[in-house]
Write a structure and sequence with these properties.
heterotrimer, A alpha+beta (about 375), B mainly alpha (about 350), C alpha/beta (about 200), A: about 375 residues, alpha+beta, 3-stranded antiparallel sheet, about 15% strand, C: about 200 residues, alpha/beta, Beta Polymerase, domain 2, 5-stranded mixed sheet, two-stranded parallel ribbon
């Protein structure tokens, strides 16, 4: 970053203030560092510095066998680990041209959508907390806990699930689990209204989020933004609809779109996604077909030589895996994750320009990042 | 001798200690109320239902290492918490906690003193407290506290204007600056001033939130933005002083609001004869109950509302509250002249 | 290594390194999408090779024509790839053009995908596409950081994930897996002293 410039005003010369936000800061959602150049409290420019949580998952994966990598994908988006599991397994299945049984695809859909709700719960809590509404945080965590209980029952873990296998599921759903999922849907319905009562029509919330970080659809697409951030700008882009995976082609659901592309629209899009996710979960949980849970998977997983890119819609946006197999070894030759948080975070610099310090916090919250996924 | 020296000293001692204990328990109350709002339990470990938590907190803060940053302005850095704390405490000198009581054959009024410019005294002393925040932020020689102290000075000065204007309209109605006389005026007017001056009451309440840096106006300490604001660099007892000053100020605002607008120590409907059985309850209880109600609302607001942004806060202050307060003052004056 | 008679280099990968991805040609009965035809019409030498594998279309483009092809794919109405979803690379050290740089493109209008691939030698300049898709900015920075691909014309070419003073490019296949060189492994105390001296110099 260049040295601060000096404005020569009519009466005073004013210096720009360089403010270092993070990596230890209460609302950078982990170890994000933003170097802000301020004119008073107005942001002139921002430099987003990442890499504090870089663990080299891509490099690590090149030295693990195909099944061991599932465990590493848990550690990327650790608030929606099952989604990463599904994304990775589907990519390998695509590389091997494996058929996944319908039962497994339905359960994957349920898990993905439960994760979306869990991740959005975390998002709405922290986003509201950043703007100062502290109660929503604990309400949202109360419901997230129910989802974690469901996951615990399914795979024994509460955060890093390792809940998927190449070709299907590691184990069948426990008896009565689908009933519990439906019960959860019933509880969740009213709770979303509860969050909305606290925020959606709250005047301070409106003032804090409307017109903040406005970005148009084409510009958002050009910046590589994805997921709810892109949809908040009105671009109908949802991997679940456009390139269906798991059992999404058999589900009916709407893709909520924003109109003005500001923080408030992104908020509304995600709130509506809660409801659409519940809709998908209901359809999937009521219609889980009988049958095997694992397809015809060879004992030794060794995809043919070649490369492929496969994307799924994680709670944060398009989560893509680009995998190169050399066809000879039991580990990938190149393992690349296109993480939605990484690409969305890139837009932060564009979004914060011209806003105030308080809005920076609101905008970091509104693009919903997980640093584990940004840095990998 | 006893009237001149001993009784005031005893009263000062009682008020000072009661305030400090009250302030620490205010912290517990806040944590408990917010926890209940958020479907949690709050502190439960120290003492039954966490009742001894404030003592544990105080102990912890006292034995914590007291850090002064190398580049801080050491004298100002040390003085700032004191400057914040002292005004918050000496304001209690003029607050009437109750009516006169008869103790050991002596008539003892339940206030330390009743000066005829009581309200003026409160306003002027309370505004000194702002310096503590500004100096603390400035002396830390760090960017976050600096931004916070800029915010604080702008915010507190502009909300002080609104508050003082509402106080003037109350003075017009009561015809006195003395706190005790204002309570008596409400007794003789047969109505609390909250009903005579509803706009002033609301503006005072909002301004009071802003004056005490309470949510949704807690910009100077906005944890999520400025990592704690003006007290980012403070630790240990000096941090505790800032912390206590904030809560002491909250109690001051609640007490002043009770005195000015809710009839102070008066029981509800002080002029209705058949309610006179309520006189069994001592007058200071009414005062405490009313102030507690205020404090509860303070906490409730904090648990519910998001935070305003700095520029929105200034806009609210200068474009809404101050014009309203001025209009209220003018109308009060006109009505007063025409009707009386 | 039993299957490798020659003594391996100091940190060379253990398994025999393949020379590159197979990039299979599309089957004869599968017609390439229309935008590829119009691309090769508009830019004659734009496509060096077309390949199809498990449902993905890939075109290999000469480095010199990358910007033209990218501009065409972004602007042409039948292609309209407005979203550059990923830029990445893979390293094939036995090849003279050791890097594959891969651009995963997506069109939000037509909902189709395409992968554009270029092959670049170690110091060969790869023009930045961040002028066409601003979102490629960080992705190219990461490619530079991780592989040392010489991205030219980039508005802000700095390391992204690794510290600024990092030596080497970790995602290369010949990067030592043990960490930053032998000094750390053999003489950790010296290494720590060196670090400390450098950090202190930084602070002052």
């Amino acid at each position: 970053m260049e040295t601060p410039t000096v404005h020569h005003g009519a009466m005073f010369d004013t210096n720009e203030l360089v403010l270092n936000m993070g990596p230890q800061h209460p609302s950078t959602h982990g170890v994000l560092r933003v170097v802000l150049r301020l004119d008073g409290e107005k942001v002139v420019d921002a430099d987003v510095v990442i890499g504090y949580l870089h663990r080299g998952i891509e490099k690590l994966s090149e030295n693990r066998n195909w099944t061991q990598i599932i465990l590493l994908t848990d550690r990327m988006d650790y608030v929606a680990a099952a989604t990463s599991n599904v994304g990775y397994c589907e990519t390998v299945e695509k590389l091997m041209s494996l058929e996944v049984p319908r039962r497994a695809r339905y359960v994957r859909t349920i898990l993905c959508e439960l994760q979306r709700i869990a991740s959005h719960c975390l998002w709405v809590g922290t986003h509201a907390m950043d703007i100062g509404a502290m109660t929503v945080f604990l309400y949202a965590f109360r419901e997230r806990e129910l989802i974690l209980d469901l996951f615990e029952e399914f795979c024994g873990a509460r955060l890093t699930y390792n809940s998927m296998r190449i070709g299907g599921l590691p184990l069948d759903i426990p008896p009565g689990w689908d009933k519990k999922v439906l019960e959860f849907c019933k509880i969740m319905d009213s709770k979303i209204d509860e969050y909305e009562t606290l925020l959606t029509h709250n005047r301070i919330w409106l003032e804090r989020t409307r017109g903040i970080g406005v970005i148009s659809g084409p510009e958002a697409a050009g910046l590589g933004l994805c997921g709810p951030v892109l949809r908040g700008s009105g671009v109908p882009r949802d991997v679940r609809k456009d390139e269906p995976y798991a059992a999404y082609d058999e589900m009916t659901f709407d893709v909520p779109l924003g109109t003005s592309g500001d923080t408030y629209d992104r908020y509304l899009v995600r709130m509506e996604e809660f409801r659409q996710s519940l809709r998908i979960i209901r359809q999937a949980a009521e219609g889980i077909p009988d049958g095997p849970i694992v397809g015809k998977v060879p004992r030794l997983i060794k995809p043919p030589a070649g490369e492929t890119y496969h994307a799924i819609e994680s709670p944060k946006g398009e989560l893509g895996f680009f995998i190169v197999s050399d066809g000879k070894s039991t580990n990938p030759y190149r393992f690349r994750v296109r993480s939605p948080s990484f690409c969305n975070l890139q837009g932060l610099r564009r979004l914060v320009r011209g806003h105030l310090v308080a809005d920076v916090v609101a905008l970091i919250g509104s693009i919903d990042i997980v640093l584990g996924e940004v840095d990998r | 001798m006893i009237d001149q020296l001993v009784i005031p000293l005893v009263k000062i001692l009682i008020v000072l200690n009661a305030t400090l204990v009250g302030v620490t328990y205010m912290v517990l109350l806040e944590r408990k109320v917010i926890a209940w709002t958020q479907s949690r339990l709050g502190p439960m470990r120290v003492g039954p239902y966490g009742a001894l938590q404030p003592i544990a907190d105080a102990l912890k803060l006292m034995i914590k290492e007291d850090i002064t940053p190398v580049r801080a302005d050491k004298w100002v850095f040390t003085a700032a918490p004191i400057v914040a704390m002292v005004p918050a405490l000496i304001v209690y000198a003029v607050i009437p906690f109750g009516d006169t009581v008869n103790l050991f054959g002596r008539e003892i009024p339940l206030y330390i003193t009743d000066i005829n410019v009581g309200l003026l005294y409160i306003v002027s002393v309370a505004s000194v407290g702002v310096y503590g925040i500004i100096l603390g932020g400035y002396a830390s020689n760090s960017k976050y506290p600096l931004l916070a102290s800029l915010r604080a000075s702008a915010q507190l000065i502009s909300y002080e204007v609104a508050i003082t204007l509402t106080l003037v309209s109350v003075i017009l109605v009561a015809g006195s600056l003395s706190m005790v006389s204002i309570v008596r005026a409400q007794e003789s007017a047969h109505v609390w001033f909250a009903f005579l001056q509803p706009i002033a009451f609301v503006i005072f309440f909002i301004g009071g939130l802003a004056e005490t840096n309470r949510s949704p106006f807690d910009m100077p300490e906005a944890e999520q933005e400025l990592t704690g604001g003006f007290h980012t660099e403070y630790s240990g007892m000096r941090f505790a002083l800032f912390f206590l000053a904030e809560y002491a100020n909250m109690i001051v605002v609640a007490s002043v609001a009770t005195t000015l607008f809710l009839g102070g120590w008066l029981r509800p409907f002080p002029n209705v004869a058949w309610l006179s059985f309520l006189d069994v309850i001592p007058s200071w209880t009414w005062f405490l109950v009313k102030s507690f109600g205020f404090l509860y609302i303070f906490i409730w607001v904090r648990a519910t509302l998001p935070r305003y942004r700095y520029d929105q806060l200034m806009r609210l202050g200068w474009k809404v509250l101050i014009p309203l307060a001025i209009a209220n003052l003018v109308i009060t004056g006109i009505v007063k002249v025409l009707l009386l | 290594m039993p299957d490798d008679p020659k003594a391996p280099e100091a940190h060379a990968p253990k398994a025999a390194v393949p020379a590159g991805p197979p990039d299979p040609a599309p089957p004869a009965d599968l017609a390439p999408p229309a935008f590829l035809a119009s691309l090769s019409e508009a830019i004659a030498d734009g496509i060096a090779q077309t390949s199809y594998f498990v449902g993905d279309w890939t075109v290999v483009v000469p480095v010199a024509r990358l910007l033209d092809v990218a501009r065409h794919l972004c602007d042409a109405p039948d292609a309209a790839f407005d979203l550059c979803s990923d830029v990445t690379a893979s390293d094939w050290p036995t090849r003279p053009q050791r890097f594959d740089v891969i651009y995963c493109l997506y069109s939000t209008r037509h909902r189709h995908r395409l992968r554009v691939k270029i092959r670049a030698a170690e110091h060969e300049g790869v023009p930045s596409v961040s002028g066409i898709w601003p979102g490629a900015n960080w992705l190219e920075r990461e490619v530079y950081d991780m592989f040392g691909v010489n991205v030219t014309g980039h508005p802000d070419r700095r390391r992204l994930l690794m510290p600024d003073d990092w030596q080497g490019h970790p995602q290369r296949k010949d990067y030592p897996l043990e960490g930053p060189g032998e000094l750390l492994m053999e003489n950790p105390i010296d290494w720590l002293k060196l670090r400390q001296a450098r950090d202190e110099a930084d602070i002052e």
